[in-house]
Sequence to fold (248 residues):
Amino acid sequence: MTDKVVVITGASRGIGRATAIAAAARGFRVCVGYASNETAARQVVAAIEGRNGKAIAVKCDVGDERDILAMFKAADGFGTLGALVNNAGIVGTTSRVDEMSAERIQRMMAVNVTGSILCAREAVKRMSTRHGGQGGVIVNLSSVAAKLGSPNTYVDYAASKGAIDSFTIGLGHEVAGEGIRVAAIRPGLIDTEIHASGGDPDRAHRLADGVPMKRVGTADEIASAIVWLMSDDASYVTSAILDVSGGR
Ligand code: NAP
Fold:
């Protein structure tokens, strides 16, 4: 148990929501980041408070550095930062690379890659013993897409997650001597609304038969792995990437 703050980006829905609730159950004070769905974020805060946990909702589009700085300022007022979950991520509509606009690719990288790196920068400034902090954990959300490449679907998304894998390894080494562990989860097909936002709501269930375990995963199954990485049970785990994908 801990009473430190965890900042979770994109915690209003899906994997981020499940992680917020699981982290609060382990004593974390949760900063629930969201992009635009304030109602959903407030529901997550209410769910946590209903179980005697502590949470605040903070609007933060991780594609905007000003929002990131404001979110960490709000987190500073909530307690001592002990963890960051770089969960916010977007997909585009199903497309080939020769159909993609520059704007789409730039937005994908701004949210999925630059946003994660900037949030990690702010977390390291607060948690690193080099800066007078008490240490902590950063968990990044990658995807099995980083290994599969997602041809004819969203190669730009897959490439953004490949960048997250490299970032996890490099940052983990950089801050390993400063009390900070860095790890990533590579989810497989998980039952959330991200598939609908890519224009293909049935995608996960349609592809489930191709998963060795023959089913999609749940947000709670990803959250379990994330909170394990955040815990002292994972005290020797850093620069590591864990597939939670039913074997996919
Ligand atoms: P989701 O159900 O679509 O939820 C997305 C969450 O991120 C929402 O809370 C949303 O906030 C927020 N968000 C969207 N754009 C944002 C932005 N620009 N800045 C900050 N927050 C933003 O997604 P999910 O399936 O839970 O995915 C979470 C992470 O897991 C992502 O990084 C995704 O790539 C990764 N992942 C998911 C799967 C899967 O099958 N679901 C598989 C592999 C990896 P609002 O509610 O305000 O819109």
